[in-house]
Amino acid sequence: MNTAPKILQTSSEKVLLDAITNNSVLIDSEGNILVANSAWVEFAQQNDGDLQKCGAPNNYFDVCRNGDEDAQAVSNGIKSVLSGEIDIFEHYYPCHSPTENRWFIVTVKKYLIKTGEIRALVSHSDVSALIQRQKDIEARENRYRSVINSLVEGMIIQNRSGQVVSCNEAAERLLGVSEKQMMASQSILPTQKLWRQNNEPYPLLEFASNLSVSVTSHVRDLVIGVGDNPGCNNGRRK
Questions:
Q1: How far apart are CA 120 and CA 33, in angstroms?
Q2: Tens-place pLDDT, residues 207-218
Q3: What's the CATH superfamily of 12-127?
């Protein structure tokens, strides 16, 4: 009996797979590649791949077996789909070339045929542009964080509701409150008392950031004392 996998080069599955822009293959329950779409073939050719080794009728598991941890994770995910344990599996992995850094997400979906056999549609999506944009944003944020942390002035950023979204190290030291504590609060609540220049207590509602949010305008040149009132001695004002 011939047990070789059936290669569906002219099947309706081939037509459907060619409509998918991602690099995709359809594999049977044993992991044999039944058909590879045009995007898969084109990617292999552009990257000096050998279609005799990465196309039909090769076994997907055999290719993964000689790969790294990501390849093993994908192999295990495909097996979980083919066994009926899950309907879909996704895995993110790097796939760098000599000339550029690339990242992909592989998606494995259950493909049930009329005989009841479970097959798997394996698609690889290039998310390099998305990952690079994210890395660029993180780099800008790190530069911004480095700049504000170098300031001796305390800097705190709040949204319109008063929620702290960021601060620098100087603000933590001056207010005696950690960034985590600030971000968990609806507003800045210093652990130390606040004072006016005339040694009168400073109401929290008139704290600069709270006042600015409430009146929706700039508040400048407010002088606020933080900590024990320098004008008091043993609880009595000098």
A1: 10
A2: 666 666 666 667
A3: PAS domain (3.30.450.20)
